[in-house]
């Protein structure tokens, strides 16, 4: 099992905050540092100083880190056209010497779309957009140099694209697809993904959704073991109960509730929870860190978790 740090900077973080957290993540020995792709804060938080762009951030981190894999969990397909997104991700992949991963989803947060003038189609149309974007992005990356890429869909058409630049990673950055939808999500994951992620759900829900993805892979005659299966959990770990309570209070959550629905408690308690996820088939855990000022939290989890499972 490997562990990654996952941040939500729309809740209030500058690039400097994210850089400090990423460097702490790298120093602690984590596999990767990921961020969300949102333009608006959630809940009662004022969101100051305001949102940061996912790929501007990752481009900077690509040059200021050396080992961490970097990526989005997940980009909203409503935010960007697929051709320019393929170019952006390929460029940042080259800037990082091949450490980039792309999480892509249909988008869900309507308020941020209205706040910044972004169209927000109905769910069915958003999934159509997502599927065409996945086809276009992977198609552009896989087109041999010197050849042209063409695509005609309902939402996008590409004519004689040179399909440049190419990512540093020969097969393209790994694609992450996630969510709990029972039909379209498993099919898209089986078709396009290198990793399937289910965020903030129960072990039972994860097992059920994983079985759907496995079935979708088998229907397409793809080996389900080609995918990595991961989850995201809100993290709140402390050496003592008082530390756990203080960290929960700092992010506006209840420690006991996080024990039941996230990853909370002392290191021994957290490892027991992680073992249950491991036994359920989770191969990778995204530890959602909501207090980016608490770099000791990242260091503690790296020290206590990495190499233990």
Chain-wise SSE layout:
Blueprint: E1 2-7, H1 15-28, E2 32-35, H2 54-64, E3 69-72, E4 75-76, H3 82-95, E5 100-105, H4 110-115, H5 123-142, E6 149-152, E7 157-161, E8 175-178, H6 184-192, E9 195-199, H7 203-219, E10 228-237, H8 241-250, H9 255-261, E11 263-265, H10 267-280, E12 284-289, H11 295-305
Parallel strand pairs: 1-2, 1-12, 2-3, 3-5, 4-5, 5-8, 8-9, 9-10, 10-11, 10-12
Antiparallel strand pairs: 6-7
Helix pairs in contact: 1-2, 1-11, 2-3, 3-5, 6-7
Strand content: 15-25%
The helix-strand sequence is EHEHEEHEHHEEEHEHEHHEHEH
Strand line-up in the sheet with most strands: 1-2-3-5-8-9-10-12
Please name the CATH architecture.
Answer: Alpha-Beta Barrel
Secondary-structure-derived class: alpha/beta
Instruction: Please summarize the sheet with the most strands.
Output: 8 strands, parallel, barrel
Fraction of residues in H or I helices? 40-55%
Classified in CATH, the superfamily is Luciferase-like domain
The N- to C-terminal Cα distance equals 6 Å
Which fold does the CATH topology refer to? TIM Barrel
In DSSP terms (H or I, runs of 4 or more residues), the helix count works out at 11
Alpha carbon gyration radius: 19 Å
How many independent structural domains?
1
Shape: globular
CATH class: Alpha Beta
Low-confidence stretches: none
């Amino acid at each position: 099992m490997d562990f990654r740090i996952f941040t939500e900077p729309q809740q209030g973080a500058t690039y400097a905050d994210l850089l400090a957290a990423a460097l702490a993540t790298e120093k602690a020995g984590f596999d990767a540092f990921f961020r969300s792709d949102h333009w608006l804060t959630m809940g009662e938080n004022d969101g100051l100083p305001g949102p940061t762009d996912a790929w501007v951030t990752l481009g900077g981190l690509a040059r200021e880190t050396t080992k961490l894999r970097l990526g989005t969990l997940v980009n909203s397909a409503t935010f960007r056209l697929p051709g320019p997104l393929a170019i952006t991700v390929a460029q940042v992949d080259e800037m990082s010497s091949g450490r980039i991963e792309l999480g892509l989803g249909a988008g869900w947060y309507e308020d941020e779309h209205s706040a910044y003038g972004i169209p927000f189609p109905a769910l069915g149309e958003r999934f159509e957009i997502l599927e065409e974007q996945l086809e276009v992005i992977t198609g552009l990356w896989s087109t041999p140099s010197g050849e042209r890429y063409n695509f005609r869909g309902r939402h996008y058409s590409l004519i004689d694209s040179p399909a440049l630049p190419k990512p540093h990673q020969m097969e393209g950055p790994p694609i992450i697809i996630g969510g709990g939808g029972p039909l379209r999500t498993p099919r898209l994951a089986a078709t396009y993904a290198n990793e399937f992620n289910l965020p903030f759900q129960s072990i039972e829900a994860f097992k059920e959704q994983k079985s759907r993805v496995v079935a979708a892979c088998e229907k397409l005659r793809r080996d389900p073991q080609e995918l990595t299966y991961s989850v995201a959990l809100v993290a709140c770990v402390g050496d003592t109960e008082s530390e756990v309570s203080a960290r929960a209070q700092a992010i506006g959550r209840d420690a006991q509730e996080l024990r039941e629905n996230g990853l909370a408690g002392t290191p021994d308690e957290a490892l027991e929870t992680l073992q249950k996820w491991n036994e359920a088939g989770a191969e990778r855990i995204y530890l959602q860190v909501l207090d980016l000022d608490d770099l000791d939290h990242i260091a503690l989890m790296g020290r206590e978790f990495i190499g233990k499972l």
